[in-house]
Amino acid sequence: MHSTSINSSPLLPTPILIHLARALRAVVGRELLKFMRQPSRLASSLVRPLLWFVVFSAGFHNVFGVAIIPPYETYVEYKVYMLPGLLGMIALFNGMQSSLSMVYDREMGVMRLLLTAPLPRGWLLAFKLVASTSLSLLQMLVFLLIALAFGVEADLAHWLLAIPVMALGATMLAALGLMLSVYIKQLENFAGTMNFVIFPMFFISTALYPLWKVEESGALWLVQIAQANPFTYVVELIRFALQGQFNAQAFAVVLVGGAVFFGLALRGYDPQRGWIKQRG
Questions:
Q1: Which residues contact 146 (CB under 8 A, 6 or more apart)?
Q2: Cα 126 from Cα 267, distance rounded (Å)
Q3: Segment-wise mean pLDDT, segments of 10 residues, the chain, 280 residues
Q4: Is the dihedral of CA 70, 171, 263, 93 positive or negative?
Q5: Closest of 97, 75, 64, 58 to residue 206, by C-alpha
Q6: Nearest to 94 by CA among 39, 52, 165, 35
Q7: What CA–CA distance (Å, rounded) separates 207 from 169?
Q8: Could you tell me if 79 and 152 are in contact, meaning their C-beta atoms sit under 8 angstroms apart?
Q9: Which pLDDT score, from 0 to 100, does residue 256 have?
């Protein structure tokens, strides 16, 4: 009687939960272990934003500090304004790198093996999403430490509270990369596709300059594109969070965007609808 009551206790993990936990550990652990075994990968992922941070913050130091815009309540240095955009850049490029990894795994057979595992496909893709988000968040935190070393003044309490927001933004961009991996059929097409995704998303946003500057120049069409760019809302969500504020509109766009991208990725990897059926 005593043994039966223990086995039926709802507090104990079920076999399904144990199976999912093992799969999560395997998928996420594989990506993290592969990343930690390649320290040059971390260095290379930080070179690009660090170069922008050092060169552009020096070159444009006195260019954009001409107005007070939310969430800032006073004039800020350009490197302070640019920091959220560079954090978003790290998440964007890592999301696209994860997309490349998915295409490679699919061609080399690893992803095919994972897709035949006795797991619901949605859980498997969710675990890949968690892995990509974890890598992005790790790189973003390292870059924040570098920014501190370069003299960016910060409220550490605000920065700590911004971590969940950065994770949410990284998740949306990882979901975007996951969705793109459905439609990129071969590695040879990856570079061309990324040129039409990464650079327009990054440059037509608030990552490097406020939109009022673009509007002043008369490029209203560019402002409208930037306002429709989901990456803009990732940057603004991080920007407000680093100042201890919450941007409800950006939060809603990032949350809904991540769900839509993941839903499209899941549909693409559905053997009844997606590339598996198309390729037999």
A1: 46, 50, 53
A2: 13
A3: 43 67 78 79 83 79 63 84 93 86 67 66 84 92 92 87 95 92 71 79 90 83 94 96 94 97 85 48
A4: positive
A5: 64
A6: 35
A7: 14
A8: yes
A9: 97
Q: Provide the pLDDT for residue 277.
A: 47
Q: What is the DSSP letter of 75?
A: -
Amino acid 12: pLDDT: 42
Q: Give the closest residue to 226 by CA, choosing from 198, 211, 205.
A: 205
pLDDT at 65 (0 to 100): 54
Q: Dihedral angle at the C-alpha atoms of 148, 153, 155, 156, nearest 10 degrees?
A: 10
Which amino acid belongs to residue 150?
Answer: F
Domain ranges within the chain, ordered by starting residue: 14-278
Distance CA(170)–CA(86), nearest Å, equals: 12
**By CB neighbour count within 10 A (0-12 exposed, 13-18 middle, 19+ buried), where does 141 fall?**
middle
Please give the Cα distance from 173 to 95 (Å, whole number). 6
Q: How far out from the chain centre does Cα 29 lie?
A: 18
